[in-house]
Amino acid sequence: MRTRVAVLALLGALLLAGVLSGPAQAHWADLAVAEVVVGDRIFRITLTFHTGLVVESEDDRSGQLSPQEILAHRAALTAALHDRVRLTNNGRVGSLTIAPAEGTTPPDLSAGTHSTIALTYAWPDAVRGLNVHYGLFLPGVSTASCLATIVEAGRVRSFVFTPEQSEFSFVVGRAAGWRQAASFVVLGIKHILTGYDHILFLLTLLMLGGGLRQLLKIVTAFTVAHSVTLSLAVLNVITLPARLVESGIALSITYVAAENLWRNDRSLQRRWLVTFGFGLIHGLGFASILKEFHLVGANLALSLVGFNLGVEIGQVAIVTTAFLGLLALRGVPWEAGIRRWISAGAMAAGLIWFVQRVSF
User: Fold this and answer.
1) Beta strands 114-122; 42-50: pairing state
2) How many other C-beta atoms can be found within 10 angstroms of the C-beta atom of residue 325?
3) Is the entire prediction scored with pTM above 0.85?
C-alpha cells in the first residue's frame, strides 16, 4: 500500500507540481495603486506601478525610479503614460505633468519592483463629467489590476481597473456605488480563478467522493470560514505574516490530498469540519489583495461585499464544473484510480509549494 502511494505521489508530482508551482508564486505580479484627489480644474494622482513598464527610464536598474530619474526622464515618462493613463473632461484630454511623489507613503507592494510618481491633469474649465482610461498593465499578466481610490469633497470611492475593465466614468458630486461594487466582484472572480492553490484545494476536496448533500456541506463550510477571516483580516482584527498564511494554504492541500489516499467513512463524514478549519486560512489568503488597498469606512464595506461575492461566484463555477465532471465518471472502471492520481499529484504539489513558501 505504501509503495503504491509513493509511486502515485511521484508520478502525480510530475503531472501537477511542475505545471502549477510557478503560477502559484506569481499571484498579482502586476498590482498597481492610484490615489486620486479631485479638484475644480486639477486632478492629482499618486500612482504606484510596476517599474518594468518604464524600464528605459530606470538608469541604475534598482527596480524603482528615484526622484532624480523621474526628473531626468520626465519627457519620456510623460510620453509613455499620456495614452495609457488618460483622463478626459467632456471629451477634452487633460494636460499631464509628471513629478516625483514627495511626502507620500507608497503602498506595501513588493520592494524593488514598483515605483511611485505624481501625475497632475489640468483643464481650463471646471471638471463636471470625467472619463478615466487606465491601460498601464504588464502584457500577458492575467492578474493585472489597479485600484483607484478617488477622493472628492470628503467622499471616497474606489474602482478596480483590469485589462478587460479599463474605463471608468463618473459625474463630479454624484455617487457611483454600484460600479464600485461591480468592479470588486470582477476582482474577486479573477482572484480565485487565477489562484491555482485555491483551485487545487477545492478540487482535492471533491476527490473523496460523496453525494450532493456532502458537497453542499463542504462548500457551505468553506464559504462561511473564508468569509469570516477575509472580513476580519481586511478590518485588521487578525494579522498574520504572509509567509505563514501561504504555507498554511499549501499544507491544507497536502493534508486533504493525503486524507483522500487513506480515506474511510469517518473521513467523508467530517470532511466539512476539515474544510471549515482550512477555509479560515484560505480567507486570510483572499484578504491579502484587499489589505494592499487600505480601504476605509463605507468604501471598505462596499468593496468587501463585492469582492467576497466575486470569490463565491468563481468558487461555485469551479465546484460545479468539477462535480459534474466527476458525476460523468461514475460507473467507469478506472474512476477510483483517477481520483487517487489527482489526490497524489495534489499532495506532491502542496508539499512543493510548502517548501517554496517556507524557504523564500
Assistant:
1) antiparallel
2) 11
3) no
Q: Which amino acid is at 110?
A: S
Return d(Cα 294, Cα 327) in angstroms, integer: 43
Cα distance between residue 271 and residue 256, in whole Å: 9
First to last CA, the chain: 34
Q: How far apart are CA 52 and CA 58, in angstroms?
A: 9
- Closest by CA to 97, choosing from 75, 114, 116, is 75
Whole-number Cα distances in Å, 157 to 149, 289, 318: 6, 17, 31
Nearest-angstrom CA–CA distance, 100 and 104: 10
Q: What is the pLDDT of residues 124-149, one digit of tens each?
A: 888 777 888 999 988 877 778 888 88
212 CB neighbour count, 10 Å cutoff? 9
Query: What is the C-alpha to C-alpha distance for residues 151 and 157, in angstroms, rounded to an integer?
Result: 7
For residue 151, what are the CA distances in angstroms to 124, 145, 146, 154, 183?
Answer: 21, 19, 16, 6, 17
Q: Please tell me the distance from the alpha carbon of residue 95 to that of residue 112, in angstroms, as a whole number.
A: 30
* Separation of alpha carbons 106 and 110, rounded Å: 11
Q: Alpha-carbon distance 123 to 126, whole Å?
A: 7
Helices then strands, each counted (H, E), the chain: 12, 10
DSSP designation for 94: P
What confidence tens digit (pLDDT) does each residue in 49-90 have?
Answer: 989 899 899 888 888 899 999 999 999 999 989 889 998 888
**Which amino acid makes up residue 351?**
L
